[in-house]
Amino acid sequence: MAHxxxxxxxxxxxxxxxxxxxxxxxxGLYPYQxxxxxxxxxxxxxxxxxxxxxxxxxxxxxxxxxxxxxPHILFRKDDPSYFPxxxxxxxxxxxxPSSGHSQPPVAASIILDLVKxxxxxxxxxxxxTLLPQLMAWHRWYLIYRDPKGKGVMAVIHPWESGRDxxxxxxxxxxxxxxKDIAPYERKDTSHVDPAMRPHKEDYDRYLSIVAACRxxxxxxxxxxxxxxxxxxxxxxxxIFLRANRDLLDLAERLGKAEEAAEIRGWIGLMKxxxxxxxxxxxxxxxxxxxxxxxxxxxxxxxxxxxPYAGLRDADTLGALQDHFDRIASKVRYMMPSYDPDHRxxxxxxxxxxPVWAMINYMIARGFAEAGDTARADRLRQDTAALIQTSGFAxxxxxxxxxxxxxxxxSWTAAIWLTWASPTHAQQAA
Length: 429
What we know:
The mean pLDDT is 95. The protein is 49% helix and 4% strand. The two termini are 23 Å apart. The chain has a single domain, classed as Alpha/alpha barrel (Glycosyltransferase), CATH 1.50.10. It has a three-stranded antiparallel sheet with strand order 3-4-7. The chain has 429 residues and is mainly alpha-helical. The chain is globular, with a radius of gyration of 20 Å. The protein has helices at 3-17, 35-46, 50-61, 86-89, 107-116, 123-144, 170-174, 188-191, 200-215, 220-226, 234-253, 257-274, 314-328, 357-369, 373-390, 410-420, 422-428, and strands spanning 33-34, 73-74, 154-155, 231-232, 278-279, 284-285, 288-289, 395-396, 403-404.
């Protein structure tokens, strides 16, 4: 299909997945509003309707909890085609029924992008309205996902990371006792091939974590203290460090000196904290189980987000470039979500190997900002080739290019429109 036709198809996907101001990731498999999905979707809408892009993010923040958290799912309706729904979570933290934890906080970064590309004359005004909510969410992360002030962000559930069945969670997940869960029927495997989804034993533990957090009433301090799963995540940490840098830019544009000073403190803490995730043997940043102290032994796509976070010293960048080239020699399409040389790599099972368009976008942005335009362009070209070959799938095999997971996927369409499409590349040239 010609790229101009794909441009129109991508636009159509966003319009058809629009539920009246918020967008579902795809019909059937994911019938609700997901946190970071919505924020990336805003980038796609911004290519043809900037007001609608702002509305996407504003509707996400309608579900913000009283303590500042922005949940990973907003259950704006109870759809029986999805499990676990609102009754399983049992939360009461905000104005809209929701899940009980958050997701990667990309919102500040995308809001800054919307301000910079604004054609409406109202972008900075809309950002000003969102700034207090962004500050509250960022404070929530720092208080409840880094309670000891280490400068790294932990996740209390694999789902909070946005990368559900990543091999990095395996060991910590095995330590979770399966208990307090009722008999259940998964819905995801009725929509897609089970070989592309997490295993049942993973789901048992996912639901056991939810039960443990529900038992303490989703009190964020008690969750951080007692949750059986608490793992420092380079993905969340790097995305959050970048988001804080971009939030600082927003605060300065808005003349908010007090907020800017507070954010500078966060950035300093996190720059130092990120060093504790560096695995000297692997020469990459990895996850660290905060309960056991154990460091993981694999390189995930999140390891390549260090430059996106602003960590561009010669040692870090050089090591990542070497890893990039090694991995590129092993697979046809970059960037697999896990190292193909690792024993746990699976090219089609969700986050254990497949390529994700929005991760490629962030990694490429980091490389480009570090001056490595060649690797950044390789990622853009591979993302475009995957979509041209296999359509707007949820994710793709790095080996064959086959699309997997859900189809007509909103954030894949959005990343095409904002970055991967040759049309966009020609306009930017």
